[in-house]
Design brief:
Number of domains: 2
CATH topology of the largest domain: Arc Repressor Mutant, subunit A
Strand order of the largest sheet: 4-3-5
Shape: globular
Order of helices and strands: HHHEEEEHE
Strand content: 15-25%
Helix content: 25-40%
CATH superfamily of the largest domain: Winged helix-like DNA-binding domain superfamily/Winged helix DNA-binding domain
């Protein structure tokens, strides 16, 4: 992937906002310092970064996709009150893949786990 200043701006904004923002939220953040970055540029760069495996696009949390700079295996927790998305270490369900394969006969290629509830601040 070739270097572009706009892609760097998008990636930096995502790394600084680890709450897994939507594209709309990321756009509002970027606009403060870089008003010349258009929504089309943002969406194009998010798509390219996700396709290259540099970031992760998380579908299914809400109606809008969220984006995560952390591409290592981990799960997510969504606060049902404030809507923030948090990373959860995959050690909480260490044997989930092997147990699923053992009990079902399936061959798991990939998996995602999402927990929902109240974060520490909203409890």
């Amino acid at each position: 992937m070739n270097y572009s200043k706009q892609r760097e701006v998008v990636l930096d904004a995502l790394k600084q906002n680890v709450v897994h923002p939507t594209a709309e939220k990321l756009y509002s953040i970027i606009q403060i310092e870089y008003p010349e970055v258009s929504k089309a540029t943002l969406y194009r760069n998010l798509s390219q970064l996700a396709e290259a495996g540099i970031i992760k696009k998380i579908d299914g949390l809400e109606t809008s996709a969220h984006f995560d700079h952390n591409t290592h295996l981990h799960y997510h927790f969504i606060c049902e009150k404030c809507g923030k998305v948090f990373d959860v270490d995959c050690d909480v369900a260490r044997d989930v893949v092997s147990k699923t394969e053992e009990m079902t006969g399936f061959k798991v290629a990939n998996h995602e786990i999402v927990f929902k509830g109240l974060c520490k601040d909203c409890q």
